[in-house]
Every structure is written in structure tokens, then in C-alpha cells.
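I hope you will forgive my troubling you with a question about protein structure. Could you please explain, in whatever detail you think fit, how the C-alpha cells follow from the sequence? Thank you for your consideration; the sequence and its C-alpha cells are set out here.
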Amino acid sequence: MPERDASASRRPRPGPGALRLVVLVVGVVYLVLGVLGIFVPGNFGSTGSGPFTSHQPQYTLWIFSVGPLLNVMRILIGVLGLLASRSNSGTAIFSFAGTIWLAGVSAYSILVLTLGTGDRLNVNWATAILHLATMVVTAAVAALGMRGRPRREKSAGRSDLRGRRANSP
């Protein structure tokens, strides 16, 4: 049997504090984009033909598109990211849920931008790339967070709610 390189098992892994910092940064970025997106002139001038659920490319914040639904989504992700960064379990939950949510939003964005119809979020390519990049970051946080966790040992007997084996006295 070939021997494992001892240094391979001692490679530094990002600690929970680093992963929490990444989630905090994601939360801050999305919260800032969402809140500032509200103040883009004309963004909330929604009437029957307004930007609430239609594609209005003139509404942008720097290079990212803004719209009421997109702003609400960004504010929600931002607040959840800030709250999740307070604990390791919150970071894990946010990273898994964020990966799934952003994968869906990214797929939606790419489909809308390539087909050119039915845009309800008012997305552009910069926004689609932001969502894809954030999805990759949250997936990496989820993977790295799981890598550092110790595995549970398999026990012969079942355990009850107090952690004792069911077949012990």
C-alpha cells in the first residue's frame, strides 16, 4: 500500500471564521446593491407599463441592472447573509441555500438574456455574471465548510434523544 504524504493531510484549511467572513462580504455587497438600487431615479415609478415586472435596461447601478423585484431579492440575500455570518451553522445553511437560489436565478437570467423574452427581474449580463460568481463562492463556502467537519462514528446500536444507546441499561 502506498504511503500518504504527511504534508498532504496538514494543508491549512480555511477556518470557520474565514468562511463566516466570506458570507458577511456577500451579505454586505448584496445589501448595498439592493438598497442603492432603490434610489436609482425612476426605478420605482411603476405604473402599468413601469419597471416593476418588465425589462427596462436604462435602470442600472454602475453596471448592474436594478428593478424592484431584483432589489427586494438582493436586500433579502444581504440581510440573510449578515444574519448567517454570526454563526457557523448559519454560514452553512446560507451557503447551501444561497447556492441553490443563485443557481436558479442565474439559469433564469441566462435563459432570459439569450432568448430575449419574459424578463421579470430586469437583468443584464453583468447581473447574470454577478449571480453566477456569487453562486460559485457560496458553493465553495459550503464545500469547504463540510470538509472541515469531523465525521460521525457509526454505532452498533441506535441512540435515543439523550445520546445513549437504546440497547444499554
Notes: The radius of gyration is 22 Å. Strands lie at 60-61, 64-65. Residues 45-51 have pLDDT under 50 and may be disordered. The longest strand covers residues 60-61.
